Amino acid sequence: MDIKIETEEFNFKFRVSGVIINNDKVLLVDMDKSGFLCFPGGYVELGEESQKAIEREVLEEVNIKVKVLKYLGVIENYFINKYQRKIHEICFYYLLEPVDEIETLNFSLVEKGEYRDTMLDFKWINIENLDKYDIRPKIMKDILKENKIEFKHLVVKE
Question: CATH number of 4-157: 3.40.50.2000, 3.90.79.10, 2.60.40.770, 3.30.2350.10?
Fold first, then answer.
């Protein structure tokens, strides 16, 4: 069971996201033609460790077996989604490394969901070109460009 709560005012979700860098490119995804890119990941299930959740989610969504290199931090993010719902998201970020060699080719797939299917458009973006894209949360652009790739707990209201 995914950890999420829906009320009239807010949707809350507990997620994990993975930062996968290969040949100076980072893997990002546009979910359902949202108009912005985010990091691959998904919901943490009740009783599941967040590190196991990111390994599972990347394997399910991207079909890449990864190992966690390090925990980067948590972003507590408040935003309005494309359906005009207020979202309160707590997301654990991990730096990931593919177990096997991978190609950095863009690809798309449809993730079958319990209530609806989701179109996922994956893109490998050169880190030096991140400013050309709308990436959420926006703070992640600066973290990647400055090669800090580590943070503790950020609260972002977009």
Answer: 3.90.79.10
- Indicate the residue type of 4: K
Condensed to tens digits (0 to 9), the pLDDT of residues 109-142 reads 898 877 788 899 999 999 999 999 999 998 898 8
Helices (H), 10-127: 50-62
> 73 with 152: CB under 8 angstroms?
yes
Structure tokens at 157: 């209201």
Tokens encoding 115? 């209530």
Cα–Cα distance, 10 to 112 (Å, whole number): 24
Question: pTM of the prediction?
Answer: 0.91
